[in-house]
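Model the whole thing, not chain by chain.
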Amino acid sequence: MSDFTANTSSPPQEATFGDYLALLKPRVMSLVVFTAFVGLMVAPQGVPPMVGFTAILFIALGGGASGALNMWYDADIDAVMKRTSGRPIPSGRVAPGEALGLGLWLSALSVVMLGLAANWFAAGFLAFTIFFYAVVYTIWLKRSTPQNIVIGGAAGAFPPMIGWAVATGGVSLESVLMFALVFMWTPPHFWALALFMKSDYDAAKVPMLTVTHGRPHTRKMILAYTLLLSPVAIAAGLTTIGGPVYLAAAVVLNLIFVKGGYDIWRRTEDAARADDYRTEKKVFRFSLLYLFLHFGALLVEAGLRSVGLGGW
Amino acid sequence: MPITETHEIHNRRMGRNLGVGLTLLAFVAIVFFLTVSKIRNGGAMEGFDHTVRPSITEEAYE
């Protein structure tokens, strides 16, 4: 006889290590890593490789921590959205308190480590970014205003500025333009997604522009933002981080993006439903490429400058 | 009586423990190599501890 009673049924609540990693939103982290890395590489001053590596790692971890805080707060709406219902908290594998604890501790760790590795200005900036995403966007804006995506987009736009701050210890026109590029890109990117994922946001009662102002208005705003984004993207090419390669890429990419915005604006809802939102899906996919190629071109310019080419 | 049969739940816990262990090891390695990098690049090797040391007197800078 034993005093131990084994529960042989398989409890679905037991999380794997991967579930905790999923709380950090690895796909969002990859964007943070890439844009922060570019922000660091295009800065006029360099940092030792190990300092740069550590800084990027903890900027990414800070982004991941804010993702965990977002999943903790949004667990109720994640549960009703098809796309997010399998996340660790709504599926019951991770307790909400665990996600909150993980988010808070990783936030503190990432800020302190970034301060020790690089400088306290960059660390403060990271702390502000985490606060902005977890509190300003997730808690204040997401459920209360259709401008949630516009203002909340700032949180995703800060990483290149933090990367720049790691190297320079400050802010400059170039880093502000990198911020503006991501900031202005976010609304058309997410609204294109909202157009073909409509039922999800409706069911979750998130005040997406498509729900509050209607789909024709959303189409108009997508075009407006692609038009507003173009001068920002091209202006970055005229600063010290730009050059002929970036400028050529920016002109072509923005022409395509504006054309995509125009195509979305021109379409009626019936036409979009008829071909299962083909144009909207195409523009959404292109928007990912758009951002990747802009930052990629900045990286190319930095590489060329290091061998005496590139830049103006 | 020892548990002789490995349940699927034990595998999950093993995976979690391994993940945490490796993460902690990686963290130690990062702090170590960051310290080496900082010192090699001329970072401060001693902090201010509220007492006068020969290395922070004016003569040390002359």
